[in-house]
Amino acid sequence: MEVNRLCTICARGGSKGVKNKNIRELLGKPLIAYSLQQAIESGLFRTIAVSSDSDEILDIAGRWGAQHLIKRPDELATDQAAKIPAIRHCVREVERITGDTFTTLVDLDATSPLRFAEDIIGAVNLLETRGVSNVITGMNSRRSPYFNLVEADANGFVRLAKKLETPVVRRQDGPKCYDMNASVYVWRRDCMFESDSVFNADTLLYEMPEDRSIDIDSELDFQFVEFLMKTRGKE
């Protein structure tokens, strides 16, 4: 079967943590432009689509290279709405418009501008060479649920989040753990429409370095990303 890849970028309006963050200017470009440019630079995609409830976001996305601008229904754009249904809606709409059926679906988070095109390529290659259902991205975790990550009960008493039969005395001795960075999600099309979870029996993780793994969810995140980008430009 011929590989036919679709890249989606889902960017709703009305962010509360950082106002208008998906189109807020970061070093002279709207935030969403970075993900669009990385998708184009990867050379992987026949089609790149942006899904949003905001006409302003869609207009800006079109100016920065999105080929299809998909208006998201209001019920898929609330604070409580899950992301997978929004991606499915976008995929179905693009397939209806183009008449294509895609084999590999890639979703890029608009709030992860530090990724490189090579991260997208690496995650897609991992899915297509291993033949798994889906791939997520993450970085090496600073905390381990087996050593120094705790959870609290209703009374506030804390305990290790996970226990092993033989307790570990160093974080490095526990099972390898990762922080999901919400940067790149890759699915086989059939898996995307069969499972409502990003965790399947054969889900793989593509590891990214910490300095490319920040997801902007607060003003502090935005300032930190801006600092790293300025530093990167001086290298």
UniProtKB/TrEMBL annotation:
Coiled coil regions, renumbered to chain: none
The entry's keywords: Nucleotidyltransferase, Transferase
Statement: the UniProt record of this protein carries the keyword Nucleotidyltransferase: yes
Any one Pfam family match given in the protein's UniProt record, by short name: CTP_transf_3
Keyword Transferase listed: yes
InterPro entries: CMP-NeuNAc_synthase, Cytidylyl_trans, Nucleotide-diphossugar_trans
GO MF terms held by the record: N-acylneuraminate cytidylyltransferase activity
CDD domains, A to Z: CMP-NeuAc_Synthase
Gene3D superfamilies in alphabetical order: Spore Coat Polysaccharide Biosynthesis Protein SpsA, Chain A
Domain of life: Bacteria
Protein name: Acylneuraminate cytidylyltransferase family protein
Organism: Geomonas paludis
